[in-house]
Amino acid sequence: MIKELITYPDERIKYVSADVRKFDDELFRLLENMHDTMEHYQLNAIAAIQIAVPACAIIVKTENGPLELINPRILVTDGEVIAEEISAYYPDFTATLKRHDRIKVVYENRFGELQHLDTEGGFSRVLQRKMDMLFGGTLLDKLNKEGRQEAEKILQKQAQEAGYELGESCPTVFVRDYFKRGAKYLLALVGFTFILPFFISPELRTLVYTLDKYALIGVILLMVVYFIYAQYEGKKYKQCTSCQIGNIIGTVAILAFQLLIISLGVFFWISPK
Amino acid sequence: MARVVVLGGGVAGHTAATFAADWLGKEHEVVVVTPNSKWNWIPSNIWVGVGQMSKEEVTFDLAPVYQKAGITYKQAKAVSLNPEGNASSDKPFVTIEYTGQSKVGQSEDVTYDYLINATGPKLNFAATPGLGDANGLGEFTVSVCTADHADHAAHEFAKSIEKMKKGERQKFLIGTGHGMCTCQGAAFEYIFNIEHELRKAGVRDLADIQWISNESFLGDFGIGGLHMKRGGYAASSRLFAESLYSERGVKWLIGAHVNKVEKGKVSYELLDGTMGEESFDFAMLIPPFAGVGLKAYDKAGEDITATVFAPNGFMKVDANYNAGAYENWKASDWPRTYQNPTYKNLFAAGIAFAPPHPISKPMSSPNGTQIFPTPPRTGMPSGIIGKAVAHSVCDLIKKGPDAHLHEASMAEMGAACVASAGKGLFDGTAAALTVYPVVPDFEKYPGIGRDLDYTFGEIGLAGHWIKHILHHMFIYKAKLNPGWTLIPE
Known about the structure:
The structure holds 2 protein chains of 2 kinds. Chain A is of the alpha+beta class.
């Protein structure tokens, strides 16, 4: 049966596929569906996750017909090659990336019998790409951080042009979150000082107590700035969610609770007796 | 007055003994039998092995700690068990042979009401020719399994650095020394600490670093891999591991069973049946683990070792040892109470219990050689199991034989792992990972068998700090300093 092919921005591609444990009719049906879908979309290879089934199975076209690889693993790699690649998951996108040239692969056939192959060049690249998909990886995971960010921008633009609602007008990171994170880190830092009384002298303990008190004041200031800035940012991106105000109040309440707990710790535990 | 004998003073044994002594008080006796005079925080052996910590920083003397806790300490190794007693008495006993306390070589029968077997593993170097023999580590490779081994490794590593400073190229081979090893995590930490130290020493460009292991994918770690949540989906530890190896310029070779070690060279068989060789100037290969070789005898003196212990030497507990093939494995195969099915006053904890089957997918080469990681029972699960077993034993003593036993199944237990990838206050890195459950439960969590709400993974400097804090915290706890019972396992 021909199945729908997962394409960007469908995030199910990131799901880690599980090892096939039973070599039964269910697996055979999956493989038939993969064969049919591959033929329909004229692909040269397909991973089960591309039809939204998280199982470690791939099919690759070879000169001798399609090759089914169940639970494949790369054992040995040799050499590196940089080349352009395309993927059916990103229909209009080409990435230049580095892959191993030669690989040694072990896999099982549809009857659960262990097989192996040595391969290089284009076939090796296709196998590596499909096997990455089994572990939740796509082309982008092979790029460096800058390359990935750039590629994400291009892909988001393409997806929007194609009519997907990615919500680019909503930033993925709100500036207010930096204040929240700052407050949390500062609280965590104060939390870590709770183990110090076990090791340090009374004089040092007095110093830690003083520093902790300053840090707690810092947390309060960051919370105030967070609350005020979040109101401003919430108005700026009204379209993002309907309950930003609720989130902001909730966040402040959680932070206040954490602050209370940590403060109690500082005043009753760190405080020199 | 009941007597609880704990065999072993590692993570599981020490946890079990100290909690048992705390809960039982002075009315009952807790005896620890361990051949070592010192306690060792094994995870930090990695840092000893690269010369970043001394042996003394990761060990401490057991005697004063046990004295403080009111535990009877016998520095000895257990030789055999008589769970039914012998011809002259019905009282079960364990025969021990002293390794210290000025009684070296002397034997003694220690009777018990309850026995917790937490001996840990025998480091089976003899399994691979050249890796070692019955006496332990061989001459060609190093190990970080004990503090002494790690200290030796640090000296050898320093020699390699000296050679490199003189311009000589060196090849480092790190990984597992047999097809049925566990503890890939320790080798993983060691290879990246080596890489980190080589960079610090300014000689990284003269080093070839090669990973060799019995995993079938990088990042398997003996538990079929870890999964990290990323945008609501799980990312595999394989992608994380591969990018780390590639970023740090470490070559890898997996699905390998090292079958011979010679001077400067290992021979191996791969999962595809092919044979190969890898040269080295410095090699740290983890040995496979086996049971410590305890024998068991019944009242008449007949050997009942096969009743009490599995063929690999680990103690049989309440696990399903007849699960059959991989496709039939279930989370419920894993033990819950760690009680021996034949002798109800025998328990096992940590590595000493026989697991029902591996966690990773079992694989064999076309030649029939089994090559896959065996299940780890170290670290956090080991401590949790030790504590649960101690709790059960204490309840059996205090509430009677019908007391409810405490449970700690690895299929219902999460584990946190902080793997160091280099030590340094400002340039250190460590991967902090959590996994739930340790043993995948394919029925409860279809697919990968893990609950993604409890998975987490991150690598960075903060991880290193956590690792360093854990080092101090667990040594503090193990020394039974004030508040030790509040520190989790």
